[in-house]
């Protein structure tokens, strides 16, 4: 499996935020979000056998493992890796761009954190209803917004696709670009079931640093 890095850190962007977590960052992503903070994962990396990744995750000692990218959904070995991590007692999170459907054969005990990318990202054309149609309560939709127009687009899209009652939703501000206090106000005014979050790992660690 093509891997950019593995590391132990604090989960920063989901209902698991705050917990120690072992991260497996895959290499390669077909999208090019305007505010991507992991462009170093687009190319390069090294081949690592699935069993070696599982061994590292077990040695890390954290019950939580997140497979992120890059874009994990384009990795053919993803179902095997997820299955083996679950078999070793891990709680598995997979963070994905929203640009792809759930791979066939993926164990649905995994918690999927699926981005819904608004126009500010420059990638909204990748967002298709079918990529979100099979999500449920153990998953979550995460929208990172640059401003009010993005926030309105996200709430409209989730309504159109009938997802409010089916999948938990979190919204976070683009780091350094959207004021989190404004976002909190929009959420309160909307009356919608949205959880506000900030990128915790960027507050705890240097936001420009890799492997945090
Ligand atoms: S989907 Fe993720 S890795 Fe890919 S360009 Fe967007 S932010 Fe970067």
Key terms:
nine-stranded mixed β-sheet, 6 helices, binds iron/sulfur cluster, 212 residues, alpha/beta, TIM Barrel
Structure described in brief:
This protein has 212 residues and is an alpha/beta fold.
Structure explained in plain terms:
The chain is of the alpha/beta class. It has a single domain (about 1-205), classed as TIM Barrel, CATH 3.20.20. Helix content is about 25%, strand content about 25%. Helix 3 links the parallel strand 6 and strand 7 (about 140-145). The chain is globular, with a radius of gyration of 16 Å. Iron/sulfur cluster binds near residues 32, 36, 69 and 97.
How is the topology of this model organized?
Layout: E1 2-10, E2 20-26, E3 46-47, H1 50-60, E4 64-68, H2 78-87, E5 91-96, E6 111-115, H3 129-132, E7 140-145, H4 148-160, E8 169-173, H5 180-190, E9 194-196, H6 200-204
Iron/sulfur cluster binds at residues 29, 31-33, 36, 38, 69-71, 97.
